[in-house]
Design brief:
About 75% of the residues lie in helices and about 5% in strands. The chain is mostly helical. The chain is globular. Pfam families: BPD_transp_1.
C-alpha cells in the first residue's frame, strides 16, 4: 500500500501554532527586545546590547532579592511537603468524613490570591488582628509591620495555610491509587506502620510528590500577590522577593530595560531549576527501566 503525504494537513495545526505564538513567543520576544535597548522617551530607543544583563547580574539589590526568594522557597518546600503528606496519611480513606475532609482541604485553594493577602493583612495586625493580638497576649513581641522576623513568619504562615492543601490533595490521590493487596501482604508479614510508609506508600506516591514539589517550587519561586498585599515587600526590603523587586523596577522606577533583563534571567533560572528538579527526581525511575 502506497503511503501519500498531504501537506494541507499542516493547515489544521496552524490555529494552535498561532495561539502558542500569541501567548508565549511574541510576548517573550518583546521582553527580549526591551532588555537589549534603552528607552529615554516614548518612541525613542537606543541599542545597548547585553549591558542591562551585566548590570542586573552585578547588582547587589538583585542578589539580595534572589537570596530572599530562594530562602522563602526552601522554607516553604521544607514545611509544606512533609506536612501535606502527614495530613494526607491521617485523612480517612472512605465514608462521609473523607468527602468532608476533601472539601475542607480544597477551600483555601478557591480563595483568590489578593483576597488571601488582604485576609492575613487584617488577621495578623498586632492591635486588632486575632493572630497579632493573640501572640502579643501570650508574651511574644510580634508586629509584622515593622519587624522583619515577624513579617517573614507571617508570610510563611500565610503560604503554608493557603497551599499545603494542594500537597495534601495530590498525596491523598497517590495513597488512594495503592492496591489493597500491598496492605494485606504487609499485614501478613507483620510490617510496622513506619515500614508500610517507607516501603509501600512513599514509593507509590513518588510520582505525585514530584508533581507537588515542582508545582510548589514554581509557584513559591514566582510568588507576588500575597506578600505584596500583606507587607508590600517590607518592612524595608525584608520581604521584597524577586517578583516584587521586578515590578518595582518596571512600574515604580519605569526602568524597562533593567526590568526586562531581570525578567529573562528570572525566567531562565526558573526553567533551569525546574529541569534540574525533574531530572534528579526521575533519575532513579529511568535507571530502573
Amino acid at each position: 500500500m502506497t503511503k501519500t503525504e498531504n501537506n494541507k494537513a499542516w493547515f489544521l495545526v496552524l490555529p494552535v501554532l498561532l495561539l502558542v505564538a500569541m501567548n508565549a513567543i511574541i510576548p517573550l520576544m518583546t521582553v527580549v527586545n526591551y532588555s537589549l535597548q534603552e528607552s529615554f522617551i516614548a518612541g525613542f530607543w537606543d541599542w545597548v546590547g547585553t549591558r542591562h544583563y551585566e548590570d542586573v547580574l552585578h547588582s547587589e539589590r538583585f542578589h539580595a532579592a534572589l537570596i530572599r526568594q530562594f530562602a522563602f522557597t526552601f522554607i516553604i518546600l521544607a514545611i509544606e511537603v512533609p506536612l501535606g503528606v502527614a495530613v494526607a496519611l491521617a485523612m480517612p480513606r472512605k465514608g462521609a468524613w473523607a468527602s468532608v475532609c476533601l472539601v475542607l482541604m480544597a477551600l483555601p485553594l478557591l480563595i483568590p490570591w489578593n483576597v488571601v493577602g488582604a485576609i492575613w493583612n487584617i488577621f495578623a495586625l498586632p492591635e486588632i488582628g486575632l493572630l497579632g493580638w493573640g501572640l502579643n497576649s501570650l508574651g511574644f513581641n510580634y508586629n509584622y509591620t515593622n519587624q522583619p522576623v515577624s513579617a517573614w513568619f507571617t508570610v510563611i504562615l500565610m503560604d503554608v495555610w493557603h497551599w499545603t492543601s494542594l500537597v495534601v490533595l495530590l498525596a491523598y490521590a497517590g495513597l488512594q491509587s495503592i492496591d489493597e493487596a500491598y496492605y494485606r501482604a504487609a499485614k501478613i508479614d507483620g510490617a510496622s506502620r513506619w515500614a508500610v510508609f517507607r516501603y509501600i506508600q512513599l514509593p507509590k506516591m513518588k510520582t505525585v510528590l514530584i508533581i507537588a514539589i515542582l508545582l510548589r517550587f514554581i509557584d513559591s519561586f514566582m510568588i507576588y500577590t500575597e506578600p505584596f498585599v500583606l507587607t508590600g515587600g517590607g518592612p524595608g526590603n525584608a520581604t521584597t522577593f524577586l517578583s516584587i523587586d521586578l515590578v518595582k523596577a518596571a512600574v515604580g522606577e519605569f526602568n524597562l530595560g533593567i526590568a526586562a533583563a531581570m525578567s529573562i534571567i528570572y525566567f531562565l533560572m526558573t526553567l533551569l531549576v525546574c529541569w534540574l528538579f525533574f531530572t534528579l527526581m526521575t533519575k532513579d525511575k529511568e535507571a530502573g527501566q
